[in-house]
Amino acid sequence: MEGLLDFVLRDILTRAGGIDRCVSEFIRITDQLLPERVFTRIVPELHTGGRTLAGVPVRAQLLGSDPVCLAENAARLATLGPAGIDLNFGCPAKVVNRHGGGAALLEEPETIAAIVAAVRRAVPAHLPVSAKMRLGFNDDSKAIDCAQAIAGSGADELVVHARTKAQAYRPPAYWERIADIRAAVDIPVVANGEIWTVDDARLCRQASGCEMLMLGRGAVADPGLALAIRGGGGHAGLTWDMLLPLIAQFWELVCSRLDAHSRAGRLKQWLNFLRRRYPEAEVAFQALRTINQPAAITRWLAEQGLEAGVGFEPPVAVAQARGAGQGLLAH
After folding, report:
1. 275 and 161 in one domain?
2. What are the phi and psi torsion angles at 189 (to 5°)?
3. Which residue range is the domain that position 137 belongs to?
4. I need a surface site. Which of 36, 88, 92, 228 has the fewest CB within 10 A?
5. Annotated catalytic residue: which of 91, 146, 204, 210?
6. Domain count, the chain
7. pLDDT category, 100, cuts 50, 70, 90?
8. Same domain, residue pair 44 and 139
9. Which residues are 58's β-sheet partners?
10. How many CB atoms lie within 10 A of CB 233?
11. 204 is annotated as an active-site residue
């Protein structure tokens, strides 16, 4: 999720708990072999064993349309120690699609097959290669063909966002179509799209037949969602008071890792998502909406009792659900 779920938010959301694995925002591959610094800038977890500071593995995602160039970059990336390599066949952004990347490739199953096969050959056998796709570009008529191209070319796992490019992010998500894909391939399939609540997760699992789920915007809006899903609805996730230390830690990371002109916007961007779940976030968003100076935001947070460095521990009863077989991924 370029521009939203970057390494800073990955760090914070994995501290909240309940997430088994993350996938980075995409690294755009065009016509050159990227230097190592580009990979580590986008996925700084490569400096910490391919994991967030909370210990959650991170797969680095590549986006492009040239099999040879993707394979060369995947080979270089593999030397840096990611938890795996993911391939993007789902981005709906017009600028990406105009250049033949992302969801545009869903019109060309044969190119998808060539990309997956080339990347699989280029990286060590022990390193997982996964892919994410949508149901199609304008319609879902080639969904099975694309999924079979991915599975048949050596991918270890497939994530399916249950909408076409044309459907963008408009609800609903068509989870039942993921069940059709599961029946057509012999690799693990992960369901994604429009999972905002525990009930959404339950309905998605029923409709798709997938045990593993990928959370995107839903986890940004509700950082305790993975915990709540693991609790089977018996736990409410994170209260606002439990979330406050994570907000303080987020701001500390933003101020230490991002350019000054980006800091205020990043906090307000997250608060904008959080107000979908927390009424208190609406109050904070309105208070900070016109403030752009980081020092002023730091003072406001201090006035609320939010001090950087405050520790956070997920609820023990729910954290122990880790390993219960309920796969939850963040992207």
Report:
1. no
2. -120, 135
3. 7-235+325-330
4. 36
5. 91
6. 2
7. confident
8. yes
9. 22
10. 12
11. no
